What we know:
- The chain is an alpha+beta fold.
- It has helices at 8-24, 29-46, 126-129, and strands at residues 60-62, 67-77, 83-92, 99-101, 106-114, 132-138, 144-151, 158-160, 167-168, 173-177, 181-187, 192-193, 200-201, 207-210.
Amino acid sequence: xxxxxxxxxxxxxxxxxxxxxxxxxxxxxxxxxxxxxxxxxxxxxxxxxxxxxxxxxxxxxxxxxxxxxxxxxxxxxxxxxxxxxxxxxxxxxxxxxxxxxxxxxxxxxxxxxxxxxxxxxxxxxxxxxxxxxxxxxxxxxxxxxxxxxxxxxxxxxxxxxxxxxxxxxxxxxxxxxxxxxxxxxxxxxxxxxxxxxxxxxxxxxxxxxxxx
Length: 212
């Protein structure tokens, strides 16, 4: 199992704490050691970074995150577009891979981080009130799509790797969100969804929409 670079500090800290606990209560080690290994294993699986094979499908938007589709709806996007957009929301549980990936090939035109609250990630207002990071990418045809990384009730750190004017390829790492979160993607209203509510998608692999 490959571990993402964002997990190294956390795994070292958790491993150190568990080692200290086992050393202090050594007389109970036959019991605490397997429990400690299970706890460390839980954190390790959260930071796993599997290899993904991104399909080459021009005009297709690829899922930016692993998880379940919890919303497909038209909304007014108020931070960047100031107009109606098709929003697709992907909820990531603590058991999903939490690497976020670039959904289309193009150029980054906007990146903005917003501190905020920590409502549960599936809360309707989480996209507006929670800690979040917004990225806009323009493809070769001039279509702009917005990806919003949203922290959840447990998440306390959003990492975004992209910067304005950077050229990106579909499937590249976009960022990482720690411990339960959501990823929203805002598309032109002419885009055709390829997924359904409650469908499970795989970041970097599952086509979720077709751009006009």
